[in-house]
Design goal:
The protein has about 475 residues and is of the alpha+beta class. Among the domains are: about 220 residues, no CATH class; about 50 residues. About 40% of the residues lie in helices and about 20% in strands. The chain has 13 helices and 17 strands. Helix 3 packs across helix 5. The radius of gyration is 32 Å and the shape is flat.
């Protein structure tokens, strides 16, 4: 039987006593926030999020030339295109949809358990939440779900952004939280002036502690401290309770918790740069490229450029028998070279991100099973590793669901056996899969055959419907051929 912990039974961890030359708890938390925001991990999270939104480094691209003193100076009268070809976002969406677009299955022989869990994890709202966490995992390397009780007293789940949570782990494997710090920003008003306020929440075994971060200092803020939830009895009394674990469940992309952007940022920057350069060069026509002027009827080159741009004509003269002329030195832009380099960058991004090319030649007229498996081999291998991480995290989340079910009287499922199955969104030759299922009848269980059929989303519901139809057939023909008494 699961047990909640009474808040009154726990010592208040965040004591604010003066510890001499040692850090107080508030000073320690403020130092951890500063260290995290200056870390490489935070920078990778920031890069992953902004690159997904299309805010790439190429947007700060400048055209430069060598100045009089030999240093590079910015030149603002040349074409300066900033092209973003966001292949990174395509890879993130592809990998998230591949693993999480289809409903996962909680396979248990105890139907009462799956029915009890269904309102919490096996529904559309949670699948949508899990997909959002999947994007966090890709962009930030880690995602977070916070189980809590809403105002109606129902167990609910909330997503926290990766760059908001600073975990304090008990072990090097990051398997159990000792505490966690959440830092986030809110818009507030000081009179009529809008300002950004930094809020801090500390999660520990004693509940949640509230602060505001001002100029690097942690200031306690009302309500100061709250338990994770309060239970009201039939007599109208209330009792504060806390979970036996910190109610923050981490979802990871891999063991290293590394964002996907770390695998392809330089390649994405190279792709943007080469496409921007290509557009720059195609726009540099003879009116703004190198011109050779012989006996120009004027003095200043700026005036010459302006007349050329305005009228499309140049006045020249003959001087000492030399005929005036204007010639241009043109650099031919070989489009094929750019196309080849762009193609190399796109393929390299797909390979380094372990995705697949939806325009692969293997999807042509000869799209057999071997070709499809070859095309999906990289993303399938990466998805298996991510699936193992997500399965472990969902089991951790189920601990909170089981605890809730046990203490709400829905049943004690502490020792319940179950298996979490993810359905891949892989392109398949469905006719071949259906034929294989038909040939497997009698060799393996019907439950396994139905689970692998491409048209089945809800295994238990499909088996229930099959049983219902079989019973209807028995009722219809069950007395056929029998002699009447």
């Amino acid at each position: 039987m699961f047990q909640f912990m009474r808040a009154a039974d726990l010592a208040h961890v965040l004591g604010r006593q003066d510890l001499g030359d040692r850090l107080t708890d508030e000073q320690f938390i403020a130092a951890e926030i500063k260290r995290f925001r200056q870390s490489r991990r935070f920078r990778d999270m920031y890069n992953g999020e902004r690159y997904y939104k299309g805010l790439h480094d190429v947007l700060h691209k400048k055209r430069t030339a060598i100045g009089d003193d030999g240093d590079l100076i910015e030149v603002d009268n040349l074409p300066n295109n900033r092209v973003v070809n966001n292949q990174y976002r395509k890879m993130v969406d592809q990998k998230v949809n591949y693993l999480l677009s289809q409903p996962f299955v909680l396979d248990s022989e105890n139907k009462a358990y799956t029915d009890a869990v269904k309102p919490y994890l096996l529904n559309h709202n949670f699948r949508k939440l899990l997909k959002s966490v999947g994007k966090d995992v890709m962009n930030g390397g880690i995602g977070w779900i916070f189980p809590f009780y809403d105002e109606a007293g129902e167990l609910s789940f909330r997503r926290f952004r990766p760059d908001e949570i600073i975990p304090l782990w008990q072990d090097a494997e990051h398997s159990r939280l000792e505490a966690a710090i959440r830092v986030y920003e809110l818009l507030a008003y000081e009179g009529k002036n809008e300002k950004v306020v930094q809020k801090v929440e500390v999660f520990n075994p004693d509940g949640i502690h509230y602060f505001e971060l001002r100029d690097g200092n942690l200031i306690p803020e009302a309500p100061f401290h709250e338990p994770y939830f309060v239970v009201t009895d039939h007599q109208g009394g209330s009792q504060a309770y806390n979970w036996e674990r910190i109610p923050l469940v981490a979802f990871r992309r891999n063991e290293e918790e590394q964002p996907l952007i770390c695998s392809c940022k330089s390649l994405q920057d190279g792709l943007n740069q080469i496409e921007s350069m290509w557009q720059d060069q195609t726009e540099e026509d003879p009116r703004n490229t190198i011109l050779v002027i012989v006996n120009y009827d004027g003095q200043r080159l700026g005036e010459f450029r302006r007349n050329l741009a305005t009228y499309g004509a140049v006045k020249v003269r003959s001087d000492n028998g030399v005929q005036g002329d204007v010639k241009s030195l043109q650099i031919q832009v070989n489009a094929e070279n750019y196309k080849a380099i762009i193609d190399v960058f796109k393929k390299a991004i797909i390979e380094n991100c372990m995705g697949y090319d939806a325009k692969d030649d293997r999807l042509g007229s000869n799209a057999n099973e071997m070709n499809l498996q070859s095309m999906y081999s990289d993303i399938e291998m990466d998805a298996k590793g991510m699936e193992a991480e997500f399965r472990s995290s969902l089991e951790e989340l189920l601990w909170f669901v089981n605890c809730h079910l046990s203490n709400s009287g829905a049943g004690d499922f502490d020792e319940e056996d179950f298996h979490i199955v993810f359905n891949r969104d892989m392109m398949l030759n469905e006719s071949k899969v259906i034929e294989d299922c038909r040939k497997s009848v009698g060799l393996i269980s019907n439950r396994t055959i139905v689970a692998n059929h491409p048209y089945v989303d809800d295994l238990d519901e499909e088996l229930k419907q099959m049983q219902k139809e079989q019973q209807e057939q028995l009722n219809l023909y069950g007395d056929f051929g029998k002699e009447k008494p």
